[in-house]
Task: structure prediction
Amino acid sequence: MIKTIIKLLIAVVILNGVYRGGAVAWDYYQLKDAAQQMLLFGANASTEELSGQILAKAEEQGIPLEPENLIIRRDEGRTFVHASYRQPLEYFPNVIYPLDLSFDVDAFRVEGLK
Result:
């Protein structure tokens, strides 16, 4: 009986860590995809507007992305975004591991499309 309880507790701890890690990964990919979409469909937006949109999306998702860790630049017809942040992951109750996450996305500006 005790062995079964211990096995169940271990399984619950592992599942908890997997769930929390999956939630962090889900938020990461959601933000990265949103940034890519903003670049693709915001070709006429200024870099300040894009920055504001990406930071708003990060805040909406609870991602601690700071403005100084978001770099947006344009080079002729191409826009680049680099974002990096540190996301705390509580993989075990009261044990927090800081994950350093970053992504780069870019898009070409296509003229003449309506």
